[in-house]
Amino acid sequence: MTIVTGRRGVLRTFALTAATSAIGLASAAAKPTAATVESALTPAGATHLGALKNRLALARRGRDFKTVPMILNDPDQWDHEALSEVLSYRPAPKQAWDNTDIGGPWLNLMRNALNSQIWSFKHPDFLTVSVTHGTANLALYDQATWDKYQLTRLAGEEFKTNTLIIENKGAAADPANYENPAGSFSGDDNSIPALMRRGVVFLSCHNAIWEQAAALIKVGLNPDGLCHAALAAELTNHLVDGVVLIPGAAGTLPELQQAGFHYAT
């Protein structure tokens, strides 16, 4: 620790501290922190949704698999803790979307449902869940996996890269203005990260992962020569942060419906 002696030294230190504080305050005012933006995207009064987001962030994700079986038969093989948090969410209404087509309007539809529920019907704790399978599940892998396994071959030429995990220009707008037609709540920010920050939970279907691993092996996109179980494990390990792995979409939908989720497709 440095000790400043003398009146002049004390004054110099005080001035430097004040200037540094002013710079820090100016920087904070010029650019909101990620936590500030995150909070702004959660509706005012959404105490239950905010608490769920915090619990999901702490829930364990299994992403160190060496192999996985075709049929999961042990809770440790999927994100049981996180899925249990979703199933036990009590506020209503809540909605589960059956999403299968990466090129379809699924992100836009969920965004529109959120906007209507929150601002039209005044349900700030409204929870949206994407039960993701089919080609839509490809959007839940990170870009490194897309590059390694040339996932464009499975997703279609419209998706040269995984554009759905990149926030769009609307993310830079002031989230306080929810009516902004080019803002955070508009079609200019239809992305998985934007919806996640609003509380949408993306569930990834293990059966889809298993089938996509089989498809990659069939067309020769298996650079490490992995067996089917090992390739499915690698895909699982590269789901983007925040995704919840489930045993299967079709089998999990009844669990969500029994828990009070409204089915949407």
Characterization of the model:
With 265 residues, the chain is of the alpha/beta class. The protein contains eleven helices and five strands; from the N terminus they run ααααβαβαααβααβαβ. The protein has helices at residues 7-30, 34-41, 47-58, 80-87, 106-120, 143-149, 152-155, 192-197, 206-218, 228-237, 249-258, and strands at residues 94-99, 127-132, 201-205, 244-246, 262-264. It has a five-stranded parallel β-sheet with strand order 4-3-2-1-5, sandwiched between helices. It is globular. The relative contact order is 0.16.
TL;DR?
This protein is α/β, with parallel strands linked by helices.
Brief descriptors of the model:
265 residues, alpha/beta, 5-stranded parallel sheet, 11 helices, 5 strands, 44% helix, 9% strand, disordered N terminus
Alpha plus pi helix count: 11
Query: How would the global form be characterised?
Result: globular
The computed structural class is alpha/beta
- Low-pLDDT ranges: 1-37
Q: Overall pLDDT, averaged?
A: 88
Separation, N- and C-terminal Cα atoms: 62 Å
Helix content bin: 40-55%
Oligomer: single chain
Please give the radius of gyration in angstroms. 22 Å
The count of strands amounts to: 5
Order of helices and strands: HHHHEHEHHHEHHEHE
Largest sheet: 5 strands, parallel
Which strand order does the major sheet show?
4-3-2-1-5
Share in β-strands = 5-15%
